[in-house]
């Protein structure tokens, strides 16, 4: 009941004209960003963070804008999957399997509409899950002392690669790079300067927003330059929408199952949206009657879309309650919260109740906006897909640079951004994942602090790290998270590849 | 633009010297001003700039607008360096400052810079320091905590939202020193990246005591999860905090206001400095500003002009000596 009244207060915040405006803007931008191949949700949010800062938006408005972008990107990802057979972002990969065949059969409009509805159901159910689960977890979080936090951070790093991660070694290497960057600056536990070379700009360390924009957005620009992809991509023509209520009812069960599975996958740290859509698709294939999966079955579009949108909202649960992000994009959102001087975790629900519940309520509204946007206005987004990247990428770069400079008024930050861009390009070339680098930068200082605090409190006794049931439990999951992918990973990946090639051979 | 203004202001000021002092200000402020908040949006300095800027414009002290520019870095060091190197003569620039600024200046954390390089305008309120424990703590007064520390400096561990050697840490050390605790460097302080993070640890029973400011503890005090043992102010604070005893009542002469105020560039014209000082004086008395203070948990603390400059000098000196005593700096 308490939660209900808080949620109602949240709606009071979310229904102000200002909030609605930012939700709509975010939804439109997000869909656009998601639809364009290459610019995933993490990129989209990363580029817009500095912009939100430089516009001087309040924390609530910024967060509403960026969560809408996040949700919108999850919607948008499906558009290019269906029309171009190129996923707009990684989680939308599974949507290609049945979406593109549907489009080839002249049912592109239906596929887009069904996936929009499924996305809506996925987000909606997962947001309800967030409402129920987050406050429970937030209360529980008071039990987290430094030792438990240390175990939790270890868990976050251990499960980083996730079940679908390709190379555990490279993931660990990336995390180590992030941890190394994180050591720059004044160490708060001792007040000692580390690697600052007496440069004032380095005293507070390397700003992770700059790292994120550089690593993700600027490196994308370099990739574009390399490909010389000057022209728009060839796409399937879109037909007139002919969708009966019966068609919608037919995909409802698939959407609900996908939503729940996606949410669970999202809450687990490290699993994320890709796994959410993958599980939803495979489960759906097994549960449903035979159908024509892989050849354009509407349920094959609905399940993964509901799954990846569900996972997107699910990933917000650990980020908001414990300050440990469950996915790349939530890591980016976490960086923004910290930059706004809002510390995520249990206190967020106590001290910034307006903000949290406002944002959650805004997610419901944004979701509705997205559904309305994505059915009648789909034609506009489709048109935008044909904008040649040669116009698009300079705009993205411009927005990123202006945003970064406006935050700090420091040209040094721009050099850093370009430096990270070059580094990001090299890392991606050699298949070093970028998300662990960001997580290393974000969580590294926290992890170090927790370890030190544990040892100060126990007067130097290392066994304090394993002294409570909670911390032992977390350590166990962490070890499983590190070991399981090595055993189970190849099997899951083989299956994913198999279902993909099966479609390709069509 | 600026030149014509300063020419004008020189002319007016020589004329004004003959007129009756008081109402007529010699200096006419530029149409708009800039306030540098040396941190990201959302923190204390950002708040100082934005709220002062808003009241200045609302009450038409400044005809145009006051633009807040965020310039994070080195805990205010980047903004300090920027002010003395690039804006040294700028008459329409103010920079937000607080105890954190003087602490870093005192400890030499802005390399090659010191407090004399800028002009200190004044303060517009303060957030007083407190020492608190969780509701299940065995300590019910500051005296008990200090007695425990006298026996064993390791007995009570503190959590706070500033870095080691920062203001929250210093408050504990100052209080302990005044109470006669020996071996100050042995007192354990756990640095968190924000007051709220430190509070959760104390409320959750993981750390013994919390050191911070009164505005940070309101929520947990009301819910009864936190017991505030002492406020480090000269007198008891206004309601709802009037139930908290001061440290002085408990026999320890420890006062720790975390003031909010401004400095202007070191070579800003005397006229503009005087204008800012008198404007801050007036602003402080307005109902609009009182409302801002109440809403944000600020408590009265006003010093300006020469008095404030002297205060900054004393505070810097005190902090330097204390930091040397406890081995934070050499």
Automatic annotation (TrEMBL), chain A:
Boundaries of every DUF112 domain copy: 20-439
Ranges annotated as spanning the membrane: 20-39, 45-71, 111-137, 149-165, 172-193, 205-225, 259-281, 322-343, 355-385, 391-407, 414-444, 464-492
Keywords: Membrane, Transmembrane, Transmembrane helix
Superkingdom in the source lineage: Bacteria
One Pfam family of this chain: TctA
Signal peptide region: none
Protein name (database record): Tripartite tricarboxylate transporter permease
Species annotation: Marinomonas colpomeniae
From TrEMBL, chain B:
Protein's UniProt keywords contain Signal: yes
UniProt xrefs under SUPFAM superfamilies: Periplasmic binding protein-like II
UniProt signal peptide: 1-26
Keywords (A to Z) from UniProt: Signal
A Pfam short name: TctC
Family: Belongs to the UPF0065 (bug) family.
Protein name in the entry: Tripartite tricarboxylate transporter substrate binding protein
